[in-house]
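Hi C.,

You asked whether I'd gotten around to modeling the 120-residue construct. I have! Everything is below, sequence then structure, no commentary in between.
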Amino acid sequence: MQPASSQNATKSQQPTNSRKKFSPEEDKTLQELVEQYGAKNWDKIAELMPGRTGRQCRDRYRNYLIPGFFNGQWSQEEDNLLRQKYLEFGSHWAKMTPFFNGRSANSLKNRWNYFVCRLN
């Protein structure tokens, strides 16, 4: 076991994991890499995306960049369908995506947690 002063010095030298938004250039590069390597080889893609992990690349692609993704205004019909599907599936967002054209599982979860469930 290291002395306390040695532990503190080690902690202060570790890089911080601050959040950094993907830039438009990174999005373009990510899309090109997915076309080249496929949407499953995230560790290889991350090697070619400096400062990004495979999980960050996968999440960014699946939640925002995947072809057909729609991030527009939610309709009352979609909110009603989300309520209905939540009663049917619970919080299994991926099971609901086939019922929502162009909406990702993450967008369903966010819509539920920040808007729909608060209106009940």
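If it helps when you're writing up: Confidence is low (pLDDT under 50) at residues 5-16.

Thanks,
B.
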